[in-house]
Write a structure and sequence with these properties.
The chain is of the alpha+beta class and 182 residues long. Helix content is 26%, strand content 29%. The strands form 2 sheets. Strands 1-2-11-3-4-9-10 form a 7-stranded antiparallel beta sheet. A hairpin with a 2-residue loop joins strand 6 and strand 7.
Length: 182
């Protein structure tokens, strides 16, 4: 009788295997969700400075590479209007890269942006040619009128000012969302 009790039916064995598989699949998803809730946020882009409308940003760890998107504190010079918002831009220069300024162009790694004549006329100076030091990053927006590292008032972003690093996510533009309710 004890031999019969010790044996498991095929259904019981199948259920145990299925349960182990489900736990094995669910555990990383659960841990990943907790991590994202603890260290992540979604940032909505309300401007045309970048090609995407939404970004998932992680506050830890800050693994910054060329091409990643970073959120950083709005510089004091933009005034109180933007102080509550983070700037989100694409990293084009990392420590050791050379920033070149020639005429109305600012270039890093052959990624060049034209300076806006209207900003230059207002006295906003371009960034000076330099080699980025440890902990410095150059960021560009993809729109020609983006306020970014091309200008000295933004300049190279120090690592300690970077709040999060992320990637684009599919998200409708705020104008599309507004149209849904009209």
């Amino acid at each position: 009788m004890s031999d019969i009790a010790a044996e498991q039916s095929p259904n019981e064995k199948t259920n145990k295997v299925r349960n182990r598989i489900l736990v094995g699949l669910f555990t990383p998803v659960f841990i990943g969700t907790l991590y994202c809730l603890a260290f992540g946020s979604v940032v909505i882009n309300g401007t045309t400075s970048l090609p995407h409308n939404g970004y998932f940003m992680l506050r830890w760890p800050l693994l910054i590479t060329s091409g990643s998107y970073v959120a950083f504190e709005a510089p004091d010079v933009v005034g109180e209007r933007f102080q509550a918002y983070s700037f989100v831009k694409r990293v084009v220069g990392v420590p050791g890269d050379t920033v070149q300024v020639s005429g109305n162009q600012v270039c890093v790694n052959e990624d060049c942006r034209t300076l806006q004549e209207s900003l230059l006329e207002k006295g906003i100076e371009p960034i000076a040619a330099m080699t980025l030091k440890a902990g410095q990053y150059l960021v560009f927006g993809d729109a020609p009128d983006s306020l970014d590292s091309r200008y000295a008032l933004i300049g190279a972003i120090p690592h300690e000012k970077i709040e999060a690093v992320g990637f684009p996510i599919p998200f409708p533009h705020w104008k599309e969302i507004k149209a849904w309710f009209e």
